[in-house]
Amino acid sequence: MHPSESASRSSLQLERDGCALFPSSISAARREELRETVFQDEVAGTRCLLDVPVVNEAARHLLAELREAGVLPAGAVAVQAIAFDKTPSANWKVTWHQDVMFPFAAPVSHPEFEVPSVKDGVPFARPPREVLEEMLAVRLHLDDCDLTNGPLRVSPGTHALGILKGAEVADRLAAHGEHTCLAAEGETVLMRPLLLHASSQATVPKHRRVLHVVYHSSRPMPEMWHRRVG
To answer: Cβ(150)–Cβ(200) under 8 Å?
Structure first.
């Protein structure tokens, strides 16, 4: 392992590093229902799942826990949910990036909401930095995630650097290093969307199912989210 790399299950802090483990009480039965309902064989990811009843319920459960813990404000809402999996037939990798594109109820018109596109019939755009900094991704692990099945890798502290250009990424990685996030089935990983993150292909391909729910503080803004679950 490179000197700038580390791997553990609990050493990161959300405010300082932009990522942290968080205990959740979502039941084993609910996790099994999620595995059976929202994941498809040979499909790496599915977006915009908040209309699926079991996902909606899980998003509300996580939100209540995060509010109670003081991680999210009282008015926060879920605005996106994605199902990710890695299998022998869908053993994908993701290069270093920030999550900056999110779904909206209609094509955006405000000039600060940039890079508009359409994915699966839903308008997407990049919110301004101040909105992205008010967002939090919660990754509920539905399988154990170890070093062999393509775990999340993050560059601690890079969430505080704003929206990065592609040419800046290598220098930021060199300065901040990287950390591999391991998690047991049933645990959640909290992550700021502006945190640089990546994942490698699994060396021992097997399920690595994750329900990825994104929340926003719900501060008023000129564009309307595709969904608001609170």
So the answer is: yes
215, amino acid identity: Y
Dist. CA 42–CA 90, nearest whole Å: 5
Q: What are phi and psi of 182, to 5 degrees?
A: -100, 145
Superfamily of segment(s) 5-216: q2cbj1_9rhob like domain (2.60.120.620)
Q: State how far the Cα of 75 lies from the Cα of 89, in Å rounded to an integer.
A: 40
Q: Which residues of 183-211 are buried (b: 16+ CB within 10 A; e: fewer)?
A: beebbbbbbbbbbbbbbbebeebbbbbbb
How far apart, in whole angstroms, are the C-alpha atoms of residue 138 and residue 86? 18
Is the pTM higher than 0.70? Answer: yes
Judging by beta carbons within 10 Å of its beta carbon (0-12, 13-18, 19+), is residue 115 exposed, middle or buried? exposed
Name beta bridge partners: 7: 180
Residue 217 and residue 35: Cα distance in Å, rounded? 28
Per-residue pLDDT reduced to its tens digit, 107-163: 999 999 999 999 999 999 999 999 999 999 999 999 999 998 889 999 999 999 999
* Domain positions in the chain: 5-216
Query: In whole angstroms, what separates CA 156 from the centre of its chain?
Result: 15
What is the separation of C-alpha 113 from the centre of its chain, rounded to a whole number of angstroms? 20
Q: How many residues does the chain have?
A: 230
